[in-house]
Every structure is written in structure tokens, then in C-alpha cells.
Amino acid sequence: MLKKLSILAATLVVAASTAYAGPVSGGRANAVIQPEPPSLMLGLVQNGPTQMVAGNIYESLLRYGPDLEPLPQLAKTWEISEDGLTYTFHLFDNVKWHDGEPFSADDVVFSADVFLRETHTRLRQSLKYVESITATDANTVVFKLNEPFGPFIGIFEVGTMPMIPKHIYEGTDYKTNPANNTPIGTGPFKFKEWVKGSHILLTKNEDYYVDGLPYLDEIYWHVIPDAASRSVAYETGVIDILPGGSVENFDVPRLTAMDNTCVTDKGWEFIGPLSWMWLNNREGPTADKRFRQAIMYAMDREFAKDALWNGLGKVAQSPVSSSTRFFTDDVNHYDYDPEKARALLKDMGYDGTTVRLLPLPYGETWQRWAEAIKQNLEEVGIKVEIVATDVAGWNQKISEWDYDLAFTYLYQYGDPALGVARTYVSSNIAKGSPWNNVEGYENPKVDELFAKAATAVTKEERQKLYTEAQQILTDDVPVAWLLELGFPTIYRCDVKDLVTTAIGVNDGFRDAYIEK
Amino acid sequence: MADFWKRFKRNRGAVIGLAILLAVVLIAVFAPLLFPQSPWKMVQRPFLPPFAMDRFPLGTDTLGRNVIAGLAYGARVSLLVGLISTLVSLLIGIPIGALAGYFGGRVDDALMRFTEFFQTVPNFALAIVLVAIFEPSVQSIVGAIAIVSWPPVARLVRGEVLSLRSREYVEAAILSGQTSITIIWRQILPNTLSPIIVLASLMVATAILLESSLSFLGLGDPNLMSWGYMIGAARTVIRQAWWLSFFPGLAIVLTVLALNLIGEGLNDALNPRLSRKGK
Amino acid sequence: MLRFIAMRLVKAAIILIAIVTLNFFLIHAAPGDPAAVMAGEAGAADKIFLEQLRAQFGLEKPLLTQLGLYLVGVLQFDLGFSYRQQMPVADLIFDRLPATVLLTITAFIISLVLGTVAGVLASARVGKWSDTLISTFALLFYATPLYWAALMAVLVFSVQLNWLPGFGYETVGGGYKGFDRVLDIAKHLILPAGTLGLFFMAVYMRMTRASMLEVSTLDFVKTARAKGLKPGIIQRRHIFRNALLPVLTLAGLQAGQLVGGAILTETVFAWPGIGRLMFEALAQRDYNVLLGVFFVSAAMVLLFNLITDILYRVVDPRIRVS
Q1: For C18, phi and psi rounded to 5 degrees?
Q2: Rounded Cα–Cα distance for residues A124 and A128 (Å)
Q3: Which among A96, A322, B1, B218 has most CB atoms closer than 10 A?
Q4: Pick from C26, C210, C302: which is nearest to B120 by CB?
Q5: Subunits close to C (at least 3 CB pairs below 8 A)
Q6: How confident is the model at residue A21 (pLDDT cuts 50, 70, 90)?
Q7: Closest Cα to residue A68, out of A422, A449, A322?
Q8: CA closest to C27 among chain B residues
Q9: pLDDT digit string (tens) for A156-210?
């Protein structure tokens, strides 16, 4: 195991330091898409697989580098006013939709203010801060806010605000528009064909507004519904690119040991997937802070990282992922310490009540993880019963608060105001959703800190507020943080510049090329 | 009884089967003594191959858990689920079959349509849906297996009852004014016992297979180490660690084989008339 | 014969409706609904979004109304729409159905042919070593979990020996056309159909053997022997034909098992059939797909039953004469 891990680590380094030899045009990329997306219309469906394929077809105003700094996409340049209330974007003037119609500021206004406001739940939360969106000329868009909103510059990402063609959708019923089956965007690749159960084919957009891009002629997304089969398809050379999460973790060391194989865990910085266990703060032993802290000490998270995640990812130290803005390491660290856990349990007088543990029904790794944690907890004397359920049952139980401990992982979207606050602020306690403050944690101080930090204008001020919030939360342990997940993208080393931004493969194959 | 054992003994396969089953039962009963540590405990590095360390003769699994301990505890689950679900399906099947056979006519028609319906629904698919809906646990698994496996019992009992129904001693009992229930319970059912016992021994085998298939698909009780679960969990790593799926499978084959052999032996011993014809 | 088939079809239709109704209530009794799953996958679930989805799926209507609407649809061969997959359920199922039909029919034929042949061979050499060998193998196959046999087959024939592909329906991106494609699919079919057929082969073999022995003691066989007919002819014309009847009855009864077994086989071999579709749909509570799969698989079972019934009539000398 250790040897495999060191090979993996070595290849990671190699992948990071490939020498620049100059891109070449041509070739086809064979990638896996798992599971088959329900639709490619990114404005209507935003789940993982849809984003991954449609990120090549659609674009937004900005992209983000690995450090989450904004980069130009459809917007060539942009300015933010001193008071943090006015965002002005200057668009490229030679952009065309895939059907040949010109792209303009009107499309931006339609997408953000009309289409997505109706269909995109996550964007809707951020649009609450927007007073108006106006096109001042054909290539200029101005967003005016009603109060400063720190993370606002981070919402112009393709999965959050994809540009939708106004000339196709205006005045139609979005959900039944036949154009949903042949998506039209501005991206580097065009939709060509989709044979359900088999593949999705995208071809090069010859009229792309950045000269020379993209390099690839086509992208072939293969649908292979079985994890073991996907790794065999890579081994036999049918597939060149396995995006993160498309093979079982146990297969990763074997695949990365192959010749001409590179692996990277980059490209997830924006999303920042952080895993934790919900702890029901309302009732049972988990209502006691000492019990929750005991859980943190009882878990051997390093072991889980090595045995289940091939050593990829990081042990989570705080509710904010280390790749998200305003992370701080200046918090109480919970290292594996069964003795401390036992002492805490003794101190609270834990009576041996059995707690129910809900695994995440997303495959083998998560099931094994639940079994390992159960064992960890039982070793310090906590009685645990695993409750088996499927995706629908899991959703239901979490939304109805019918659990004691429950696995989950959520995305952070680059900023605590977008992806962290929602889990801990008391205004977000409501039955019916598995993604809000389902643990039932209430702390007025934390509410206040998050509220202030979201609308604070300067970075320094925000950092101070978020640091304090992270310190309080790590002491209260409203949920038991596990790992910052590392999803490895496995690919042939001659595919270059595959992952260049914080959104990784989801950001499209715009810059990717195949070395001859 | 001695006569029974003499006839049973004559079937060599049945004796072997009995020996295997006895061994499995003993291992199941004494599992906590043989392996005091929980089979879920992570005791060594993951993927330790078999025979590499004396303490772990069959190696360790993906999390470093002792495979042989898992096998011992798995025997308990298999036998328990096999036995109880068979009992439950007998409890459903015998009354339905007896009533249909005894009363005949409309009652028979209705009950047999009902039975036929359950035979038409794809068995395993129905079991999957039942377990998934009531959420995997020993109870839901036993229930689901019982619900899909009672129809053969009902058909068998119906057939037997039908043929016994016209016997003189039954007619006599009817004339003497005994209630139908008493007649079925006292006069008829005791005489159908032999074929039911034979069928039941085979049903335990089938139930063990069904339980293991459900666990293999991830629909087992997550708190109990079972053979099907071990194979299911090892499926994704079959190329790296063949032993993780091989040994539990072997355990299932042996146990099910033993039960089938015993079933044949019982058939020979209890229905001498039938068995001699086959030989 | 036609009347007989018509009667059976009417009966089949009634059973089908009963099955769909039963499953409808079972599925709706389960916790969780597809709207929540979809909202979950989109990474966002606020009240408005969920209400929108539920209204779109028609989940806000009373249960009986939903059932009624569904049944009316089914009668018009409309199996509803899968909002998860953005496709009509019928399309989804008929995309996957050929793979399952190919798998089950092949397994059915393999097991029936090999099973009866082995059974006849064994019965002809009762007590000899070849009988013992065949019977022992049958007993072993009978006791082997289908999915385990499948895994071991993959391990041996695919991973170790590299003779046969261990997963899938055809070579991914192979681009085979015409006859080459047929060959490619046939190669992929060997392991799944073989392992699915094993168990049933054992069943048919044991039944054939027992039945052959039983029939050979009957009076009309004795008469035939007394008439001086050749043993081979007696074996084929008199014994085998009659011995086949209970085997066929059994085959009809086993059809449900076969379709159920396909779920396991499809899982192990990543075979893109309706068994896998059902399993995925179940986890996501994709009601319409699940009901559709049940409808279609029950119809398949009934079809198998009908085929065996017809075979029965063709084979059974008494019925044909009268």
C-alpha cells in the first residue's frame, strides 16, 4: 500500500511540472462520463455530469485560477467600484453562438436576470443582493448591488451562471423547449450527437473567439455504467481521461502505476468538496458538545485517507476547506486520540445509548468508510448501529432530521459566504432539504459573524470575521469534519493542459491538447 | 427413528452433507469463542494475502479486517436467516395450501390464483424491492425471502391435502362432526409432514442463496457480517485480491450443498416408496 | 390452439395489471421521492424548487388518481415519462430490453438443451461413473451462488486467461460493423449467459434424469419393449417425449427466476439490460421507470410461460391426438 502511495505521490509531482513544448492542434479526447447526465442544458440541470460535459458547450463571464483569482472568459476586462456595489464587465466583441447568431450584453442580462433567476436555485441566493442588471451597450454589462456582497465576484463561473441564448429561449417554456436536446452555447466545443447509453460527441467550435483555440478536434464522452468496466476501458486504451470520481478508489493505485499515466487532484479548488458527518445537535447524546468532541478524537481520519482515498485529500481542520478563501489553520486540531475521547465520554456520563449512523449511498468507498468510523467509535465505547438506505431514503431521513450521525459532503464554491455559512447559520434551519443547517446548530454569535463577513468590503475585515467563526465552530463541533476530498483525474500523460483552472475538467477542454 | 437413521445413512452424500452442516453449525455457535474480536475490527494492514501471517490464515480485507473471523460470523447470519425465513414461509404456505386443498372449489380457485400471482412476479426482483423499501435489516430480509418463497409450499401442501381429503379416515372424521380446522390440524397435516420436511430443508438452502444475493447487491443488514456482503464488498477489488471473494463463496457453496444433500437423504429416509423408484 | 392462446393472453393481462398495482403501492410506500433526489443532485433544494419538481412529476395528486392515470397510460402502451432521465420510459426500457432478452433467451436455451441432454445421458447410465459425475456437477451448480460463479468466471477466463471479455455488451469504441459486430457481441455474451444458465442447467438436468427414470417404468414403455422396438427408438420416441413434460412445466415456473437472476448477472458483467436499469431506478425512486421495468419483466415471464405451454402442447402426444 505504502509503495503504491509513493508512486502516486511521485506521479502527482511529475504531472505538476510538465515541461512546456508548445501546443498542437488536432486529435480526439476519449473521456468517461459517469453517470450519464440527465440533460446537457446547463441552465436547467446543474448536477456533476451535466456540468462536466456542458462546461465545454456553455461559458460564463469568468474563469478562476487555482488560487481562485478571476480570469477572463466571455468578459475581457471588468471593474468593481470602491464601495463594492457596482460590477462592470466588458465583453469580447467577436463572440458568436454555435448557431451563428452574435452574442451580446443582452444575452447576459437575459441569462442572469430572467432565465437563471427562474431555474437556478443556487444562483438565486446570490441574486438577492442584486438590484439591477443592465446592458449599457452591446458589449458592456453592469451589475448593481443593494449592499456589498464579498463573494459576488465568484459567481461568474460556468456552473453557477452559464450564458443562455436569448434568441432561442426568450418567451418559451424553458423546460420543454426542444432546443434543450441540442444545446447552443458560446463554448470551445459544439454539441454534435448523443447516443443514450453509449456516448456524447462534441466537436471543435471553428468560430471560437480566442484565436487558435481549442486545439482538440473532438471530445468523445463514453458512458460506461460500471466502475470496474471503466478502469478496464482505461487499461485497454479505449479511454484516455478518467475525471475525478469515475473509478472506485481501490482501482486508482493500479491505474496510476501504468505507463504514460498521469494523475492530478487539482481542479477541485473552486468546488472544494468537504466531507463530514452530520451530528444531530437537537437530541440524544449528540446534543452534548463533549460527545461531539469525543467523536472528533475517536476518528482515525488519517487511516481513512490512506486506506480509502489512496492518501489523496487532506484531513479537514476547519469548516472551511483549505482551498477556499479565508481558511484558517489557527483552530483547535482534533488528532486521533482515543484516550481523550474516552475521557470526554466519561466526563459527560455517556450512558451507552446506541446512535444511528447513516452512510452516504454513493458506492463502496463510502460504505467502507462508515464501517471504519463505526469501528473507531465502538473502540472508545460508543454504541453505533448503521442504518442502510438508498439515495432517496437518505435524502428523506436527512431532510426530516431522522438520524444521529450521517455522512455527507458538500461543495464550498470558493467562498465561505456561498458554501460554508449555509451549514451553520440558524436562519437556515428548515425541514425539507438535506443541504441546509440540518444538524440544528444555533449560535447567535456565529450567525452575526457570518452575516457581517458576507457584506464586509475589505478582505482583511472578512478574514478576521471568518477566523473567529472558524474558531468557535471547531470548538462547538456542530458537525464532525472528515476530509477535504481529493478526486484524482487520471489521464494519459500526452494529454496536456487538461486541468488549468480551479474548476478543472468541468471548465472545459478549451486549452487541452494532445502531444504528438 | 432407528429405522429412519438406517435409511438416511444408506445415502452416502447425505451423511457427508450432515457432517458439513454440523461443522458449519458448530463454527457459527462458537464464533465468539473462536474469534473474540469483532469481525469488523481492523486488525492488520489491508489486503494481507492468505497464509502470509499465522493469525490471519485467510488474509485481511480492504480495511484490514480478519477474513476468517468474517466467515465464522457470516455462518451465523446465513443459518439464522435461512432457518427463520423458511419457518415464516411455512407459516404462510401451509395454511394457504391446506385450505385450498381441503375446501376445493371457489376457495381453491381464489387461493391458487393468488399463489400463481406470486409465482409470476420475478422473485428476486420483488425481494429487492421489498428489502429496499423496508430498508435492509434482518427483519426485512427474512420477511422478503418468506414472501417470495412460500408458493411452492402452498402447492405441495394443497396436493397432499387433496389426496388425503378423500381417505376413509378423513371422511369418518367429517361425519363424526369435527370442525374443519380440527380435521386439517389433527388428521391431515400430520400425514403431510414428510414431504414438507424435505421441501423445507431445500428451502433453507435457497433462502441462504437469496440472502447472500441481496447482501451482495448491498441490501444486507449493514450491522451483520455476512458471506454475501463479503463477496459484494470484494467485487471491486477482485483483480487485486481474489481471496476476498473466493473464500466466502466457497463457504456458501459448501453450506448450500450440504443442505441439498441432506434434503435428498431425508427424501430417501422419509419417502422410501418414492426414492426406491429412482434408484 | 388459437383459443387457448387467447385465453392465456387475457389471463396474462389481468395478472399484469395486478402486478403493476401491487408494485405501485409498494414503491409509493417507500421513504423518499424522486423530486428530493433530483434536487439533491443539483446541489440545491429549496421549497420552491421541490414544489416545482413535484408538480412536474404529478406527485401532488392523490395516490389513487396517480395509479389510475398510470394504468390508463399503460393500456395505451404509454409507460410514462422519466423526468430524471428526460426520456419517455418506454424508450428507456426498449433501449435496454434487447440486451436482457438476448441474455435470458440464450441462457434459457443453453440451460434447457444442455440440461436435458445431460439428464438423458445420466439416466441412460444410471449408477455408472458418468452418471455420478454429471449428477455431482449438477449438484454443485445447484449450490453455487450465481453472482459468485460469475465473478469466478471473470477472474479465470477474463483476468487470468484473457480469453473472453469480462464486462459489457460489446467492445467500447470498437467500431465493429455487420458480422464482426455480431461476433463481438457473441463473445461478450458467453460468460454472462453461461453463468446465468448454470443453475438452471442443474435444475433441468436433475428433473430430466428423474423423469426419464420414472417414465421408463411405465406400462406403455414395457409394451413397446415387448413389441420388440429398438431401445434407441423407445428412448427417444416414448420415454424422452414424455419425460420432457415435467421439465417444460418446471421451465415455465423458473422463468421468473431467470429474469430475476438477470439482475445479478447484469450487475457483475455490466450488461446494459433492464435489470440494472431497475436497480438504479430503485435507488433514485424513479417511479415510472421502476413500474415500467416491472411491467415489462412480468410480461417477459408470462411470455416464457406461454412459450413453455405451447411447447408442452406440441410435445405432449395425448393433447395433440385429442
Answers
A1: -60, -40
A2: 7
A3: B218
A4: C302
A5: A, B
A6: low
A7: A322
A8: B133
A9: 999 889 999 999 999 888 888 888 889 999 999 999 998 877 789 999 999 999 8
pLDDT in tens, B130-164: 998 888 999 999 999 999 999 999 999 998 898 88
State whether the Cα torsion A453-A458-A459-A461 is positive or negative: negative
Quick check: B129 pLDDT over 90?
Answer: no
The DSSP-derived string for B176-229 is TT--HHHIIIIIIHHHHHHHHHHHHHHHHHHHHHHHHHHHHTT-S-TTS--HHH
Cβ contacts from B onto C, under 8 A: 126
Neighboring chain A residues of C272 at a CB cutoff of 8 Å: 197, 225
* A133 touches A163 (CB < 8 A): no
pLDDT per residue as tens digits for the range C91-110: 888 888 899 999 999 998 99
Inter-chain CB pairs, A–C, below 8 Å: 113
pLDDT of residue A354: 95
pLDDT at position C40? 66
Which residue in chain C has the smallest CA separation from B235? C151
CB contact under 8 A, B239 and A227: no
H/E run at residue C295 = helix C287-315
Give yes or no for B121 touching C (CB within 8 A).
yes
Nearest CA in chain B to C266: B217
Rounded to an integer, the average pLDDT of A321-336 is 92
SS3 assignment, position C28: helix
Residue A244, phi-psi category: left (phi > 0), alpha (psi -120 to 50), beta (remainder): beta
What's the pLDDT score for residue C41?
61
Cβ–Cβ contact B129 with A under 8 A? no
Chain B nearest C-alpha distance from C84 (Å): 19
CB–CB of B274/B267 below 8 Å?
yes
Selected residue with higher pLDDT from A233 and A134: A134
Whole-angstrom CA distances from C61 to A431, C19, C54, C85 are 22, 22, 9, 22
Q: Which residues of C touch A270 (CB under 8 A)?
A: none
Contacts of C288 in chain A (CB under 8 A): none
pLDDT at position B279 is 35
Alpha carbons B70 and B66: distance in angstroms, whole number: 6
Average pLDDT rounded to a whole number, residues A244-260 = 85
Which residue has cell 479537514?
A316
Determine whether the interchain pair B122/C297 forms a contact, defined as Cβ–Cβ distance below 8 Å: yes
Measured between CA atoms, how close is C174 to chain B, in angstroms? 24
Bridge partners of A145, per DSSP, are A130
Closest by Cβ to A222, choosing from C42, C172, C270: C172
Within 8 A of A411 by CB-CB distance, chain C residues are 43
Q: What is the mean pLDDT of chain B?
A: 89
In angstroms, the separation between the Cα of residue C48 and the nearest Cα of chain A is: 9
Please compute the mean of the pLDDT values over residues B41-49 and round it to a whole number: 87
* B223/A254 Cβ within 8 A: no
pLDDT at C117 over 60: yes
Q: pLDDT for A114-146, tens place per residue?
A: 999 888 878 888 888 999 999 999 899 999 999
d(CA B273, nearest CA chain A) in Å: 49
- Closest residue of chain C to B254, computed from CA coordinates: C143
Burial profile B259-272: b = 16 or more Cβ within 10 angstroms, e = fewer: bbbbbbbbbbbbbe
A513-514/C81-82 β-pairing = unpaired
User: Which residues of B fall within a CB distance of 8 Å from A385?
Assistant: 223
Residue A116 parent element (H or E): helix A116-119
Query: Rounded CA gap, B20 and B9, in Å?
Result: 15
The answer to whether A272 and A450 have CB atoms below 8 angstroms apart is: no
The whole model's pTM is what? 0.86
Between chains, do C40 and A396 touch, taking CB under 8 Å as contact? no
